Batch of 2 targets.
Target 1
Amino acid sequence: MLGLLRKQQRFTPAAPVASHEAGPTAAVHCRGVTKRFGSADSGTWALRGVDLEVPPGQMTLLVGPSGCGKTTLISIVAGLLEPTAGEVQVLGAEFARLSGGSLVRFRGANIGFVFQQYNLLPALTALENAAVPLLIAGQVRRQALAKTAAVMEAVGLGDKLHSLPSQLSGGQQQRVAIARALVHEPRLLVCDEPTAALDADSGRTVMELLRRVAVQPGRAVIVVTHDSRVFSFGDAIVHMSDGRIDRIDGSPRV
Amino acid sequence: MHWIALKMLTGDRSKYLGLIFGVTFATVLMSQQVSIFVGIMARTGSQILDVRDADIWVMDNKVRYIDEVPGLRDNELLRVRGVPGVDWAVKLYKGQVRARLADGNFRNVILFGLDDATLAGAPETMVAGDLADLRRPDAVIIDTAGYEYMWPGEPVVLGRTLEMNDRRAVLVGVCKASAPFTTLPILYTRYSEAGRFVPKERHLMSFVLVKAAAGVETQTLCSRIEEQTGHSALTRDQFFWKTIRYFLASTGIPVNFGITITLGFIIGVAIAGQTFYLFTIENLRQFGALKAMGVSNGRIVGMILLQALVVGLLGYSIGVGLTAIFFESTGHITHLAGLHMYWQIMLGTGAAVLVIVVLASLLSIRRVLVTETAIVFRT
Ligand SMILES: Nc1ncnc2c1ncn2[C@@H]1O[C@H](COP(=O)(O)OP(=O)(O)OP(=O)(O)O)[C@@H](O)[C@H]1O
Ligand SMILES: [Mg+2]
């Protein structure tokens, strides 16, 4: 039933969303989400009640001072962390209702990840790394690698397919990570500080790449960032502080 | 996923080799020490197994093991022969005497005095000379290892003489015999000659060797002999195990070997376990990333177990190989001869290695499973 719902949604063209108001077409829908780490009396509140809609077909930036809860929020949105309270719906699936196993499968099929630390497997070549989501999905290795090669081409690493991560620059590793995040065509891409470990130039290349390759109709892209130089890449900027959302700026792009 | 697991495992060559080394080390230590232990224990009773022609050993009922046997009175032989179901029964002397060599050196030797008429209990395989020559006056036969021990580095020369109890003995043959526990030379002679070679003892007959008549069950015959003579009657296997049990219970040997073997196991667990655990901890982020990307906990467990089993199998194979090479290359050394690997020990070591790698991976698995997947976002 859920699967059917998802399938239908996949073919719903992304309606042009003017602002981040609630709507059935939102890819991510959070209502009253809180998260406390530690015990009830001595724990810290990382999120103190977050309402958020993220539309597909756009790049949404999540910004705010260190410790304000950005990583916590996208971990919850990506199904890696359970909220203490509140409602999270992603691509039509209500996380609270998914069993552990189906949540894992849901993540594998629908969400792509880009991490600040790349998290590539050091023993695998760039091409093999980028193919991992297809291998997880059970594709035959040869097919998976063939399909991945095209994506590697798209991120500009067609000539580095057989390099090990240790032989690549930080920017190149992050591009491998982006290829890996996109290879299985997920409908939600979450990126935590994808440019934080990179110099300004590589950072810009990565953001341009995300803009050009990742943002697609029907795919929502959430990018957590500290880096005000990349603010201009977002369609919308969600400002957080102290576990709450302060305001949301639409940043009209030219 | 299996492919990724193996790539992860072999990706870091030095850690991979370190893991295998740990398992190899444990395997060698355990399989080699257990084999030597079993071999040495088997030696304590090897002279019993060497006697193939008799079924039953009759002895004083207080005997605890083969090397400590008081003599029976000569007429006991007749009483044993009188037990129904006995095909034949003969005397056997077994004891230790001092042999003086031509050059004045002397050696303690194990002396067997075989029944003059039948030579029951005689060695099965001659290396030099003829068993029949044992019937010549003063004749003795020595085992190969014993010859090397008495006349090191010298070629086999028959006809050389030695003295026991100031009586001259002439070497007429060299035979094969299982190595005894004490690694002393083994000399065979006739019972009547033994009487001259052994310093005066009241009763020379250590054992009566018995062959059961066709169709008579050995165990039943043992009971019957015990009943009628009041002596202890044991089958070859029973006497063998009785001797081994004595050494197990009354010497420090099992404790010593037990400690070494336990240490092998513990060191194996420690080295392999710790290296493997560290290996997993270092890969925690990688496992976290895989979990985030949709790999279930079950498949993570499968990956770690696969890695552990591969390491275990490789380490075990190399270890067993090294142990085999050890026994192969020491086989010609006299005092190590006859020690070898037993397949049961290989199986047992394999089981221990399996326990080691599974224990090692359980720790790692636990750690990976309790780690929040969200660590992938942590720097
Ligand atoms: N696993 C955890 N256990 C305890 N406290 C945590 C944990 N993760 C986050 N926190 C706390 O929750 C708060 C929000 O953390 P979070 O990582 O979401 O911040 P952030 O906005 O991503 O910061 P940064 O910009 O530095 O990455 C912080 O106070 C942090 O210390
Ligand atoms: Mg963060």
Note: Residues 73-230 of chain B form one domain.
Target 2
Amino acid sequence: MKDEKAVLKLERISKKFGPVQALKDVSFSLKKQEILGLVGDNAAGKSTLLKIVAGVYSPDKGEIYINGEKVNIESPLDAQRNSIEIIYQDFMLTPNLNAPANIFLGREITSNWGLFKRVQRNRMREEVQKTIQGLGLKIDLHKLVGELSGGQRQIVAIARALYFQCRIMLMDEPTAALSVAAIKDFHPRVKKARDNGVSIIYVSHRLPEVIDICDRIVILRRGQVVRIVQASEITIEDLVEIMVGAL
Amino acid sequence: MNQNIDTKKTRLSNLSISGNRVSRYISKFFLKSSYGKPVMFLIIFTIICTIITPKFLSFANMKAVLISASPLMIIAVGEALVILTGMIDLGVESIAASTGVLIAFLNIIMGVFTGVCIIVALLYGLLIGLLVGILVTKTRIPSFVTTLGIYWGLRGVGMLLGGGLPISPSSVVPARPIGFSWIAGYFGKVPIMPLIAISIVLVFHFYVCQSQRGVHIYATGGDEIAAKNRGVKTDRVKIFVFVMSGMLAATAGIMMTAWLNSGYAWSAQGYSMQAIAAVVLGGIPFTGGYGTIIGVGIGAIIIAMISDIITLVGISPLYNYIVTAVIMVIAGSQIKKSGEVVK
Ligand SMILES: Nc1ncnc2c1ncn2[C@@H]1O[C@H](COP(=O)(O)OP(=O)(O)OP(=O)(O)O)[C@@H](O)[C@H]1O
Ligand SMILES: [Mg+2]
């Protein structure tokens, strides 16, 4: 029963926060080179699911398979080791560091003198410069992230996910703070990443965007998967009705 | 003729440009750079003290200030590391005092070889720091509570070891001199205590600015959850800063025993608060994440200057507290950042 093409497979994932059942028996798989939309009302459990795959929360129940092999993702580091990158809905940037330091946080480029690991700030800045330029937005890389605008912060969070090579990319509302122009630059990058072999889960409330960019769409309602559809075969109206439970 | 005037003009305008650049550089240093403000405080305070009494700026007095500031500078560096991560260490003064008693006990009463004593004393500080770090990260007792326990507990340990009395060379018969009293002495014409203290400040400043661990210390203070979710081992960072704080406090304890020529359980009283004051003066907010170690070193020197000027002028040492308080308020109002919440 091994699904050859599934890069990531979730089986009966459940998670409770106290009395709140955030996820219940969630199962679906993410295929290779696929952009999989994940939609649902507020509090449907989308972020919780992504954070479980990213190692922030551990599920109460359920299994995660990567390329057919069962994996234990117990920390963000485990996720990184399994080649999973995430753009968090709330960015997870530290306001007192600049963009390069944030992007490389935990994975700094260092020159090692024995135990002393010296961070190479200039090299990190040059690397980030290239990635950010590709996103078509100007960001002062010397400024602390706390001094950037909301959209600029989102760009930093996006650049962080795009910079590192990965197999699976989780995007939690990556365009929520972006302008129309910035989204126009961003979407081709997402598609390019897919064409380069990355599998992507894409969470968004902007349904036209989801239908446009995704291959398939998973619809979550109160912590449960209610439907998985082909993006090309669904209208926005139907999507909304399934999300709120009218269909 | 005309050419001459022209070159003169250009030269003048060049001059004014470079003049502008210098003043811009100076204003940038004091207002924007992370230790500009502590330096500014230092200069202003020095000027005021010199106006009060010109003796203040004398070479001998400056040397005295630096010597008396040395243990505090070292303790404050450890405190700064802890506060940078957003925690606090109230126990440093008790670690310093109990280390002082411990090393006097070993060196004078037990007659242990000096090198071994110093290593044991540093290990003692390391272990206390490790204990605090593990309590804070694994059992999740807040640092304020944990280190308050250390503050009281180690005063007790120092009392037990010394029997409540100072341990000095004459505690044994025949009297046995302290083997590391050279620390309180001179290297050529240079006093050794400030030499050690300033070296420690510079080394830690460099380390925190340049190392990966340093970035992680700032990240932990900036947003611990974000840092953790990016794979920073924040627990390790926290244990590290407490271990450093413990070892630095122990170093200060060794130094004070050399200086006082005795180990006493009630030495270093008030140093925890003074170290915190130095950190705040140095530009590190209580929430952590901003500021520099050099700034804190300067903060410690300013604190030492306060008690120095009060002694110089000959007014009651009680004013020490009031002057410190006023300076703290001024310093505190400088580090609060616009638009951010204050807690
Ligand atoms: N750390 C937490 N502690 C307690 N409850 C939580 C926590 N995180 C999420 N929840 C709860 O789990 C449920 C799902 O939240 P989640 O953030 O996954 O929703 P979402 O689908 O991402 O919503 P949105 O579209 O608003 O981002 C909500 O009821 C929320 O209150
Ligand atoms: Mg969400």
Note: Residues 12 and 25 of chain A are 4 Å apart (CA to CA).
